Amino acid sequence: MNYISSRGQAWGISAAEVIKKGIAPDGGLFVPEYIPQLTKEDFAAMEGWNYQERARHILAYYLSDFTESEIKDCVEGAYNSKNFDEGSIAPLVKLGEKKYVQELWHGPTCAFKDMALQILPHLMSTSMNTTGETSEIVILVATSGDTGKAALEGFSDVPGTRIIVFYPDQGVSEVQKRQMVTQEGSNVYVAGVRGNFDDAQNGVKGIFSQEDYNLVLKQQQMKLSSANSINWGRLLPQIVYYISAYLDLCKEGALKSGDKINIAVPTGNFGNILAAYYAGRMGVPIGKLICAANTNNVLTDFIRKGVYNCNRPFEKTISPSMDILISSNLERLLFEITAHDASKVAAWMEELKSRGNYDVGPEVYQQVADCFWSDCCSDQETIATIRRTWQKDHYLIDTHTAVAVNVYEKYLQSTGDNSVTVIASTASPFKFGSSVAKAVMSEDMLADRNEFEILYLLEEFTGVRMPAAIKGLENRPILHNTICQIDDMQKTVSQFLNIK
Question: Which fold has domain 92-110+237-430?
Answer without folding.
Answer: Rossmann fold (3.40.50)
